[in-house]
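Notes from the 1:1 (GR / supervisor)

We went over the backlog. Supervisor wanted to see one worked example end to end before approving the batch request, so GR pasted a single chain during the call. The sequence is below; no edits were made to it. Supervisor asked that the structure be written out right there so they could see what the output format looks like.
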Amino acid sequence: HKYDTASRHIDCSACGYDTCADMMRAIYNGFNNSRNCIHYEQAEADRLEKLSLSDELTGVQSHNAYLLATQYGHGSCVAGTTFVMADVNGLKRANDTKGHAEGDRLLRTAAQCLAAIFGKGNVYRIGGDEFVAIVQDLSHATVCARLGEAQQSLEGLDVSVAFGTAHAGVSTTYRELKDDADKVMYKDKLACYARHGWKPRG
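Structure output shown during the call:
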């Protein structure tokens, strides 16, 4: 992680060598290991934490990030928060009939759409085909209108996504909002399946 001149001259001596240059020579000659450098270890820890909080496939926030942001669902939402549930329809069918590359396309496209509307930092992939957006800077009516537009745009890209929303009052927990949004999303999912002539999974 020492990619520039400044980072190669921290010279904290925590590793037991007087300078970073001495430490690097020891590593080069096989007498030491980069993991004995506390700055390397911190940078590595930061890198791994970032990976754990980001979904590798879609680039939005991960399930771990969602759990932290919502205090494992027990945290109270800011009044006026809109909770969005999104479920990519037909993912298993796409994987089975067209291959996983097509399934990945559906997921990436849905994630990119949500991130474009609400910001990547507010969108989380919480399951195989499920996404969540936590929106605090738009009214519930505006969120619903934008989701309606998004749903039509996605259909034009051969991507079907069901949406559900819930609006937070005072002292509403994230878990309560998620449950309410999930019920609305399920109704929309049935409507999406009916439009496509698909049979809902049992």
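Supervisor's comment: The radius of gyration is 23 Å.
Batch request approved.
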